Amino acid sequence: MPSDTVGIMGFGLAGALLAHALERLGVAFCWADEPGPNPASPMAPGIINPLAGRRFKLNTDYASSHRETLSTFVAIEELTEARIWHPTPLFRLIENAEQAAELEARRREAPDWIGQIHPAGAHGSAVHDPFGSFETLQAGWLDVRGLTHALRSRYHAAEVPVSELADHAERVVDCRGWRCQQEARWADLPWKNARGEVLQIELEGELPRHLWNGGGWLQPMPNGQWRAGATYAWSQFEATPSLIARTELVGKLQRWLRLPFRIVSQSVGVRAVVVDYRPVLGPHPVDENAVIFSGLGSHGAILGPLYARHLAGHLAHGSPLDRDIAVARFLQ
Ligand SMILES: Cc1cc2nc3c(=O)[nH]c(=O)nc-3n(C[C@H](O)[C@H](O)[C@H](O)COP(=O)(O)OP(=O)(O)OC[C@H]3O[C@@H](n4cnc5c(N)ncnc54)[C@H](O)[C@@H]3O)c2cc1C
Fold first, then answer.
1. Are 185 and 9 within 8 A, CB to CB?
2. How many of the other CB atoms lie within 10 Å of CB of 240?
3. How far is C-alpha 192 from the geometric centre of its chain's CA atoms?
4. Bridge partners, 6 (sequence order)
5. In what order do the strands lie in the sheet with 114-118?
6. What is the rounded CA–CA span in Å between residue 98 and residue 55?
């Protein structure tokens, strides 16, 4: 029966982190999930690269919250005994002279995030790096799939069928990722969802097991294989993996990786994105019991813990939501 219990619809990264944040605040919750086409969390690499993008721009959300973000991952590891956070050196290849100049600017603005700078050829014959490379500090990857599995098990007793969620909770938070767009209530948000594909590959030859980024990225997996990604496309959200994406990913890798590789598998997921690339969260302006937590875009691992806590605080104590991420910025 409806009560103060918070309902969580969708248990990918957003739903799982919200559940964890609510537990920490002592707020009762229940959750429901129904498999749909191409969710992001089961296939997402979860890479945390504080200096992403072609201009190595510092992610300011992460810069201000990274200690708390990482401590959330550690807390979930302690709670579930699952290993989900993998701190890993990230080597970023500099693609041209313009990027080398950007790096100089970033070194002045964000020196705490830039480690050793390597000259061309420093990584041997496996890597083509004519403009050199640098190490990004505080990088790593979150096992997004592992986190959601571990928290699903922990909160198993709070799971209810989708059709019964509203019977258990008056306030329901929609955490259905890109599929929030298909809900009439949220359909008017300026969605800009982005389909993305990744390859799982086996390398023939030795490459230090770091995160690498040479335009596309390469991520070492615990089973000895690597993941390579990712593509961006703004349609075909329900379609299976494509040959176009496979060709694009192979091309991206071959621009800098000089080792042969074999493709083991290919997967597709859709990022929930709105037009200003910020999360969307909070109650609907005309129905405060309908709440959303979505729009984590390409940065679910970086932004998820911070904004799950922010929303949980609002749900528990009515603490105000930041205007630049509140859903009310789009809906009157
Ligand atoms: C290719 C790709 C690469 C990425 N790389 C990174 C990265 O390197 N670093 C990073 O930080 N982030 C990355 N991301 C982003 C990150 O993965 C996402 O931001 C995050 O996983 C989104 O989680 P979510 O819970 O909002 O959505 P989802 O993971 O899509 O979860 C939605 C959940 O809702 C459920 N659901 C759907 N429909 C219904 C329904 N009708 N009823 C009930 N339940 C439903 C689904 O089963 C699913 O469990 C990447 C994403 C993609 C696609």
1. no
2. 11
3. 16
4. 29, 171
5. 114-118, 133-136, 90-93, 211-213, 217-220, 226-229, 194-203, 261-271
6. 9
To the nearest 10 degrees (0 to 180), the angle between helices 144-154 and 13-24 is: 50
Count CA atoms within 13 Å of residue 271 on its CB side: 26
For ligand 1, pick from 271, 294, 327 the residue to mutate: most ligand atoms within 8 Å of CB: 271
What is d(CA 151, CA 268) in angstroms, rounded to the nearest whole number? 23
Which 3-state string (H, E, C) describes 103-114?
HHHHHHHCHHHE
- Spatial separation of the C-alpha atoms in residues 140 and 69, rounded to whole Å: 12
Whether the bond between 230 and the residue before it is cis, its omega within 30 degrees of 0, is yes
The ligand 1 site (C-beta within 6 Å) comprises 9-15, 32-36, 39-41, 44-47, 144, 162, 175-179, 196, 198, 229-230, 269-272, 294, 296-302
Handedness of CA 185, 5, 322, 61 (dihedral sign): negative
User: For every one of its 332 residues, what pLDDT tens digit does the chain have, with 9 covering 90 and above?
Assistant: 446 899 999 999 999 999 999 999 999 999 999 999 999 999 999 999 999 888 898 888 888 888 889 999 999 999 999 999 999 999 999 999 999 998 988 888 888 899 999 999 999 999 999 999 999 999 999 999 999 999 999 999 999 999 999 999 999 999 999 999 999 999 999 999 999 999 999 999 999 999 999 989 999 999 999 999 999 999 999 999 999 999 999 999 999 999 999 999 999 999 999 999 999 999 999 999 999 999 999 999 999 999 999 999 999 999 999 999 999 999 97
Q: What is the CA radius of gyration of the chain?
A: 20
